[in-house]
Design a protein that fits this description.
The protein is an alpha+beta fold and 461 residues long. 51% of the residues lie in helices and 18% in strands. It has helices spanning 6-55, 110-115, 161-212, 228-270, 275-309, 318-332, 355-372, 407-410, 427-437, and strands at 56-60, 66-70, 86-91, 98-99, 125-130, 136-144, 153-160, 316-317, 339-343, 350-351, 376-384, 387-397, 441-446, 452-459.
Length: 461
């Protein structure tokens, strides 16, 4: 599964909750605005209803029948403009209703009259209907009783809802734009807050990198209360590991001292052992001595690997170690007149490996190369391509090499590919283990010289 950073998770969560919160606020504001505008229209309609009711008169009609009249109309110009958006209506029990000029030639829809029975005397009712030109109307009406009339009269004032919808839509766009800008500002503020809140973790990461790179031995500095316990636990683990390293060194030294002396005594006694049995005992003692030495080197290297990872010391110069080893190999294989070559960069690097461990690692590889080479061995040191923080050490020989299907077996402890050659079969295996203990890896390939290429990559100090 792909890993999502904590910063990205927090920012996405902040963006989600900001969007949901502001969307809810926006909807609430639009609803409140519409309610407020509608309340304003209702207050305005009540005033106009009062004016209309105050201007109603009962006039005598033909044949003694009373009829409704209006002394004065409301002064709002929208009532006098055809399809002006504001309408008033006075409807009695009989006869055509009185209506504003804004109705033009249209008559109120019969559905309006069907709603008047819902009116409660003395209260203003709210209704919806259809006006001229199929305009959606919002109406406020009252039922009043006038002297001289047998039936109550309904007085209504209406407004075109399209206008209200337009105002609401315009307000919603304005609020949406404002809340969008606010959302961006809040998200930017959330980003700053997340950055500030995660800054201690960034400092902790830098401290761990300095610790791994050897620039510090502990995590220093003050951290927030949520992070400080983690820092304290990490420092406690480092102290515990340091004690383990010290104990491992002491135990490996004691073991070396305890084994080497008895082996030396037995070896001295076996020198005078005659016959084939003496030869066999001396050969096995030499093999045992070699295996003990290799295992002790590995134990010391394992104990030193933690110190190397914590940056103990300035690192080991590769050139100096190779010079020592090449001089040793020249003496050991002087009878074969091997040609030993080396190729170093202009500035020879240092590696994060203890000196003794690097001697053992490269010594095994050089000894193996010299043992199998016909007449030429070449050592090359260079930065690892694409990773300048690592160093690659290549050891070539022009011997028979190792078949591809047998290279993995050659790195297994105690595996000897040719029983006719002396040795314990531990050289390449120990070199591989030492490389892995210090963050490297041993690879076996075919050399351009025709034999084996042993390539090991190690971290640069």
């Amino acid at each position: 599964m792909s890993r999502v950073s904590l910063r990205r998770r927090l920012l996405w969560a902040a963006a989600l909750w900001i969007a949901l919160g502001l969307a809810a606020v926006g909807v609430l504001l639009v609803l409140l605005f519409r309610h407020h505008v509608e309340q304003e229209l209702a207050e305005r309609a009540r005033g106009q209803l009062d004016a209309l009711i105050a201007g109603l008169v009962v006039e005598p009609g033909a044949a003694g029948a009373a009829r409704l009249g209006l002394r004065r109309e409301p002064p709002d110009p929208a009532f006098h403009q055809p399809l002006g958006g504001m309408y008033w209506l006075v409807q009695g029990a009989a006869g055509p209703p009185l209506r504003s000029r804004s109705w033009w030639d249209a008559l109120p829809a019969p559905a309006l009259a069907a709603q008047w029975p819902k009116l409660v005397p003395g209260e203003t009712g709210r209704f919806t209907g259809t006006g001229p030109g199929a305009q959606p109307l919002l109406l406020w009406a009252r039922r009043v009783e006038l002297a001289g009339l047998d039936a109550p009269v309904v007085v209504a004032v209406g407004a075109d809802v399209t206008r209200l919808q337009g105002l609401t839509r315009s307000y919603a766009l304005t609020v949406g734009a404002a809340l969008g800008v606010l959302a961006l500002a809040l998200w930017a503020a959330a980003g700053l807050q997340v950055r500030s809140g995660l800054a201690p973790l960034g400092r902790l990461q830098v401290a761990l990198q300095r610790l791994r790179g050897g620039e510090a031995s502990r995590i220093e500095g003050r951290y927030p209360a949520e992070v400080q316990p983690l820092v304290a636990d990490l420092n406690a683990v480092l102290d515990h590991n340091e004690r383990l390293v010290r104990q491992a060194r002491e135990q490996s030294g004691n073991l070396a001292h305890g084994l080497k002396t008895p082996l030396a005594v037995i070896g001295n006694a076996a020198v005078h052992w005659p016959g084939e049995e003496g030869e066999l005992v001396r050969a096995q003692l030499a093999l045992l001595q070699r295996q003990v030495d290799l295992h002790l080197v590995r134990a010391r290297a394992a104990a030193q690997s933690l110190d190397a990872s914590r940056g103990a010391g300035p690192g080991t110069p590769v050139a100096a170690v190779l010079d020592d080893l090449l001089r040793v190999m020249e003496r050991l294989y002087a009878a074969r007149a091997l040609r030993l070559e080396r190729e170093l960069p202009p500035q020879p690097p240092r590696v994060a490996v203890p000196t003794e461990t690097l001697h053992e690692l490269l010594g095994n590889l050089l000894d193996n190369a010299c043992q199998w080479a016909r007449w030429r061995v070449r050592v090359r040191v260079a930065p690892q391509p694409g990773a300048p923080e690592r160093v690659v050490i290549e050891i070539h020989d022009d011997g028979p090499g190792i078949a591809p299907e047998q290279r993995e077996r050659a790195l297994q402890r105690g595996q000897r590919l040719d029983e006719r050659q002396p040795g314990s079969g531990l050289g390449l295996a120990i070199a591989d283990e030492l490389a892995q203990l210090h963050g490297g890896r041993l690879e076996l390939e075919k050399s351009p010289l025709g034999g084996l290429l042993a390539r090991v990559g190690l971290p640069r100090r």
